[in-house]
Amino acid sequence: MIEQNPRAGRPSLEELRAVAQPPTVVGRRNSEHWAGTLYLRRMSLHFTRAILPTGISANGVTWLMILVGVIGAAVLVIPSWWAVLACAFLMQFQILIDCSDGEVARWRGTSSPMGVYLDRVGHYVTEAALPIALGVHVDGGLGSIGGWTTVGALTACVVLLKKSFGDIVHVARHYAGLPKGEEDAQTAASRSAGLRSARSLLRFFPFFRAFVAIEFSLITLVAATLGLVLSAVDVVGEGVVLQWWLLLSLPLALATAGGFLLMIVTSRRFDA
């Protein structure tokens, strides 16, 4: 994981920002998480500047991102509100590190296909592990795995399918001998006017983002907190709201995956 740094010395924040956060990166459509744009990119630059002197490679930072995601999901299995809070914090930290690995790669000029692959692995593993971990949490922990864990596992399978639908587009284009597809709105838009209208309405209820690590962990934290409040006033049991969220997550995941597949096959993503 250690590599020779081709850029001597510790850069200033301005020097690092110019190389590691160019507009072509931070302005990418569908590639920059809203949290990155809003605040994490400001924080990640400090993190990147701090770790550069250690000599850790960009891929080493990505492995750290994967580890943090796995730990965050593992913490969530503990049936405690504090575990839910810790998971939400760790998901924030994971995305910060996810910003940093690319910054390290751009600063050192070491971007690679392996880095892209590891990044995909990190997101696949984390976003599949979270619903399973929530199911274990609702069941009462690792010692009492039951039906709620099954619901979480089914949701995780659908989340993985949805994520694979997007990546398989690039596989299909590669096998067809086509160049990498564009990410612009015109290419991604459905040819169906009805589907385009339905997609635009989702701006007001973007449930399809619920299974991204940050969003899932924050929704879970809100549900757990609401459950505590309602339990304190004897409205419902402490874990009932989390059960509702877990039950709702499966049909939402199915709708997200099905809608995404439909948008892809009716788009211009496969045009030469």
CATH topology: Four Helix Bundle (Hemerythrin (Met), subunit A)
The H-and-E topology, N to C, reads as: HHHHHHHHHHH
The figure for the number of domains is 1
Structural class: mainly alpha
What's the architecture, going by CATH? Answer: Up-down Bundle
Number of helices: 11
Give a count of the beta strands, DSSP E runs of length 2 or more: 0
The radius of gyration is 20 Å
Beta-strand residue percentage: under 5%
Low-confidence stretches: 1-6
The termini sit apart by 39 Å
The CATH fourth-level homologous superfamily: CDP-alcohol phosphotransferase transmembrane (TM) domain
Helix percent reads over 70%
Kindly provide the name of the CATH class.
Answer: Mainly Alpha
Which whole number gives the mean pLDDT? 87
Inertia-based shape: globular
List the helices and strands and how they pair.
Elements: H1 13-20, H2 23-26, H3 34-51, H4 58-76, H5 81-108, H6 113-139, H7 147-175, H8 185-188, H9 193-201, H10 213-232, H11 240-265
Helix pairs in contact: 3-5, 4-5, 4-6, 5-10, 6-7, 6-10, 6-11, 7-11, 10-11
Protein name: Phosphatidylglycerophosphate synthase
GO cellular component, one term: membrane
GO molecular function, one term: phosphotransferase activity, for other substituted phosphate groups
